[in-house]
Write a structure and sequence with these properties.
Shape: elongated
Largest sheet: 8 strands, antiparallel, barrel
Number of strands: 24
Number of helices: 3
Distance between the termini: 62 Å
Order of helices and strands: HEEEEEEHEEEEEEEEEEEEEEEEEEH
Length: about 325
């Protein structure tokens, strides 16, 4: 009888060893361990499936929260040094509210402004911006004066500095036009302004003209629609060697449903054609339309990873999460 018990105990120990070695172990910097099948690794993200649900959704976790990965073949890969401070969500402190402009500040916009255009002209301007690179953009402006007939155009090169709810810009350029009081004018421009909440443009341009040293002060406020650049979210194939995934470009796939962990302020979702308030514990589908008011936020979880949805957004939940991950 003792031999039978010993044999059963030995099988139990061997089975435990084999079960541990059969999956990848993601060791988090807070000490937790996730049993998983790792699919892809990038410098910023790790994609995996839960080992107890290999047919389930692909889960994305930020690499900054991972200490190391032990693969099923026994190899261990260090992702972050233990000396680096762990990133942890506080239950008391308000989470950051990143703005889409600060996450990806390329500015390709089109819009209109209304304001004082100088040389006795109050009028309307059509504006557009194109970004050659992050944190810089060209703006193109065509204006029409009302009370004193005038038309003008200008091109400026601007440097953009993002902050929490938008950004400040400043630059220089050239312009010219016609005014019925002074005729044709060619001018140099010094411009500055603010882009707020991804749509509001407040601009000031100082124009120094060539005709009798004319100085124009152009002040305008208006709406700008921003073409948000989030990159292509496409499926890709992972190549592996010795069961260790190859580092490739990150691909974000979002789980189907999320649970509301925390909420502050006014957060609503679309439900059967109407807007209803979101509450803690609600289950939200990734295709649900979400809108959050200013100074509000919501924290969601898919069971493994938490996502903070900031204020001043209106989009499908999947798009909001992808924009904030990038």
């Amino acid at each position: 009888m003792k031999r039978i018990y010993f044999f059963m105990f030995l099988l139990f120990i061997m089975g435990g060893v084999f079960s541990v070695n059969a999956q990848d172990l993601i060791i988090l910097r807070d000490g937790n361990i996730i049993e998983a099948r790792v699919l892809e690794i990038s410098p910023t993200e790790i994609r995996y499936r839960r080992f107890d649900h290999l047919d389930g959704p692909i889960i994305v976790i930020m690499a900054a929260n991972v200490l190391s990965i032990r693969y099923e073949n026994g190899r261990t890969e260090i992702i972050n040094s233990v000396t680096q401070p762990a990133t942890r969500t506080s239950n008391t402190a308000s989470p950051p509210t990143p703005d889409l402009l600060s996450k990806n500040p390329r500015l390709n916009t089109i819009g209109v402004t209304l304001g004082y255009q100088g040389v006795s002209a109050f009028g309307l301007s059509a504006i557009g911006t194109v970004s050659p690179s992050n944190y810089t953009f060209f703006d193109f402006n065509l204006g029409l004066g009302f009370n004193s007939f005038a038309f003008n155009g200008r091109v400026n090169f601007n440097v953009f500095v993002p902050f929490n709810t938008g950004g400040w810009y400043a630059g220089i350029g050239i312009g010219g036009g016609y005014n019925e009081l002074f005729g044709g004018v060619f001018a140099g421009n010094i411009t500055t302004g603010f882009l707020l909440f991804n749509w509001l443009n407040i601009a000031y341009t100082l124009q120094i003209g060539t005709f009798d040293n004319i100085i124009n002060h152009n002040i305008a406020i208006g709406y700008s629609y921003r073409f948000k650049q989030t990159g292509n979210v496409t499926e890709s194939v992972t190549q592996s060697h010795n069961n260790v995934p190859t580092r490739i470009q990150p691909v974000i796939e979002i789980a189907e449903n999320f649970t509301v962990e925390r909420i502050a302020g006014n957060v609503q979702r679309s439900h059967e054609g109407t807007w209803v308030n979101v509450n803690i514990g609600d289950i939200i589908n990734k295709d649900t339309l979400i809108r959050t008011s200013n100074n509000s936020f919501m924290v969601l979880t898919d069971g493994y990873t938490s996502f903070t949805i900031p204020g001043n957004v209106f989009h499908r939940l999947e798009h909001i999460i992808i924009n904030n991950l990038r």
